[in-house]
What we know:
Elements: H1 7-36, H2 55-74
Amino acid sequence: MKLTIDRIEILQHALVGYQARRDDIERRIQEVRVQLNGAAPPQIKEEKPKRRLSARGRANIIRATKERWRRARAAGKKRLG
């Protein structure tokens, strides 16, 4: 009598489970397609380009932050907010 399950058996059982899950998902996708009844597929939005901060803008933020902290320290605060 074999008491331990070897790695191959575990992987085989996992594969069976994943295939069953995939079949269920494919069935549900088909049900949704039937409900849509040939409606147009949704439009995919184009990704906007990532916004970049210029060196000047970054310098302005740093300057403003330092000024805010300078004022907070002058007022005797240990933290902002």
